[in-house]
Structure prediction request, 180 residues.
Amino acid sequence: MTTTDQLNQLKFPIGPFKAPENVSKAELDELVDTIASAPAEYREITSGLSESDLMKTYREGGWNVKQLVNHVADMQLLHFFRMKKALTESDYKEITLVNIDGWAQTSDGLTSPVEDSLDMLGAIARRFIRLIRSLSEKQYEIAYYHPVRKTMLNQKQAIAMSAWHVKHHLAHIRIALKVV
Prediction:
């Protein structure tokens, strides 16, 4: 049987997300590098996996490797979308949420080849990073409310959340594949 502490360690192998108060230029560069390197890291860890490997989970009741890869691609698209809305719509004050469990259970979330999501993740990362690097200091301060996290996030904090997210699920895949 899994204890609560063990379950929390499996759910949050790199720890839960905590929005940083301030993000320096060096820290922002590191976050951008994390987002930029994620597609290659996901491609490397999933290279040559069998269908059986893709069905492995990091914990009982957790998503399998295929769902995790498909989810990360979906959420990077959502993070990019949120930033574009925040930059272009002055009335965008509450973050767009989706039913992530529902998305993971759609037929494409369950059956899409990971290669499709890896291609998607790579393309989104390039566009997302291009957009991030184009922002002015004033644009980085544009913020919105995250009702699940019950906090305001500015764009630097949202970038930190996106970088945390790709590392979070990469850790889940490592656990599932026993590549820790």
User: Anything to note?
Assistant: The chain has one domain: 24-177. The beta strands are 143-146, 151-154. The domain at 24-177 is CATH 1.20.120.450 (Four Helix Bundle (Hemerythrin (Met), subunit A)). The mean pLDDT is 96.
